[in-house]
Design a protein that fits this description.
Blueprint (H helix, E strand, L loop, with lengths): L1 H10 L3 H17 L5 H14 L3 H17 L3 H17 L3 H14 L5 H10 L23 E4 L2 E3 L6 E3 L3
Antiparallel strand pairs: 1-2, 2-3
Length: 166
Amino acid sequence: MLLSQAHRLMAAGEFIEAGAIFERLARGAVEREIPRAPFLFVQAGKAYLEGGEKPKGFTLVKHGLKMLADAGRWGELYRLGHRTLAVLEEKGFTEESARLAAWLEEILPERSERATAIRLQDKTKHAVLPTACPTCGGPVDPAVVTWRDDVTAECLFCGSMVRAEA
């Protein structure tokens, strides 16, 4: 599966190759109207950033996040946007992080009831998930996934249900 290959390349440090696959998958998802496209664009952007292609990487990250905003998917934008900020800062992409933080500040409807509910949900204790999706191999971040119940979350990349480790 191409998605699994992209995740393996990313883990192996082959960032540009992984980015190209994630980008190809994201564009295909847009054509087929698959709701996973924004996450694939963000992952492609992260791969390109890691590979040293900062302008392209930042453009793809922002494009993926903007797709969530345009679709009114505020909860996913809030979680993924803030997690992406943390990753950018952690990896030393301070300029990109500052630009993204300013954009998120401008676009997120912080005062909405939905955003408040999302922040409260983020503080809910959940079970410990595996670090990678068993179906596609993608990273599973408990702070970003959509939780379906206390022990089950949805993989951002393939949509599979990921259950907590026993």
